[in-house]
Amino acid sequence: MFLLDKMLRKIVRSGDLTVITADGRERRYGSPDPAREPVTIRFLDARAPDFIARHPRLGMGEAFMDGRVVVDRGDVVALLDLIRSNVPWERGGGIDGKRKIGKRLLGTVGRFNSLRASRRNVAHHYDLSDRLYDLFLDADRQYSCAYFTDPAVSLERAQADKKAHIAAKLALAPGQRVLDIGCGWGGMALYLNRVADVDVLGVTLSEEQLGVARRRAADAGVADRVKFELIDYRELDGRFDRIVSVGMFEHVGAPHYRRFFTKCRSLLADDGMMLLHTIGRVGGPGATDAFTAKYIFPGGYNPALSEILGASEAAGMVTTDVETLRLHYALTLEHWYERTVAAKAEIEAIYDVRFYRLWTFYLAGAISAFRHGGLVNYQLAYAKSRDVPAIARTEIVQAERHLRDA
Fold first, then answer.
1. Which side of the chain, N or C, has fewer Cβ within a 10 Å radius?
2. Is 247:184 a contact under the CB 8 Å cutoff?
3. Which residues pair with 41 in a beta bridge?
């Protein structure tokens, strides 16, 4: 416990953390803070504290998954929020001046996503049980950052507003051909067809998502206008008036960014437009945290804005709009976490208790990263030419208001 005790005394200054060791001894850290609920954790394995201290980027997640440490007061969200809020990004918590060159190189190597690796990485996460996603997502299965016009609105309302927010920026017109890269379960493609009378091709690397998306299009009677294919964006041909990509760019990998934008530019009509919606990081380039890379999104990486813009500029894309959604994903994740906890028995029945702990730790860690760490969400609009519709923000706002009212 010596190493972990030393670490916690250095980190936890604000907030009340109690640690009970496997032999029943109690240690207190920090000081009471009305803004944070007190948290108590208890070790069931005497070796777990040392394991966590020696593997700080992975140890707590694995010890929690394996039941070697439990949260007796509060929950895992409160625990990670207490820890992360003491070292927020704004106060240098996300800037590691001692990062080794070798570590950065290892992070880069892990982001070389070949065609085969991309399919394998996507299947790892998105080919999980359909029932799991039904339990914590909204009815449309929007598995990306929602748009909260008010923090108090429901998840369903915020996800609908996200789709309207994106559609307004695309300046759609009836009869246009739209490409949805990383279409998920088809919700965005079906929405754009419904509200804008456009034809959509959605592409995914997940067989599970493909089956659901095609079934939804058939059930809606629009399978002739909203089509879905199992294909990598690098293998696409054709010409599209609009391209939208929501929550997919995180899986591209930094070494492939320029190729991604070059491909998108080649697929766009001369007067075409594109909307990219992605998790990103404030500050400069970094590395994916060890827990996420190992258990959740292998090959995934959340880019810095400079990495996105550098690649899109090199590919000859005209950036027409940039927006940073700061706390929207934290609010989204809080809804997902609450629904996951409410469905604990069902999730454990689908998988097991270890998977349930993994999933709650993943969501809790993401909440703390968007609340106090360096993660945000970016929306960037692009065109091949500066002469595209909606040259004033008022046009986008008016279009969005119309879509939301509808």
1. C
2. yes
3. 19, 71
The candidate with the shortest Cα–Cα distance to 149, out of 138, 135, 163, is 163
Domain end (from 20, 52, 86): 86
CA gap 223, 339 in Å, rounded: 31
Beta strands in 5-52 (DSSP E): 15-20, 26-31, 39-43
Residue 70 structural domain: 2-86
- Establish how many alpha carbons lie within 13 A of residue 223's alpha carbon, considering only the half-sphere containing its beta carbon: 12
* CA atoms of 339 and 66, how far apart (whole Å): 22
The rounded mean pLDDT for the chain is 91
Q: Are residues 199 and 283 in the same domain?
A: yes
User: Per-residue pLDDT tens for 63-99?
Assistant: 999 999 999 999 999 999 999 999 999 888 754 433 3
Residue 229 in domain: yes
pLDDT tens column, 198-227:
999 999 999 999 999 999 999 999 999 999
Q: What is the pTM of this model?
A: 0.91
Q: What is the pLDDT of residue 94?
A: 55
What's the CATH number where 224 sits? 3.40.50.150
Residues 319-347 have pLDDT tens digits of: 999 999 999 999 999 999 999 999 999 99
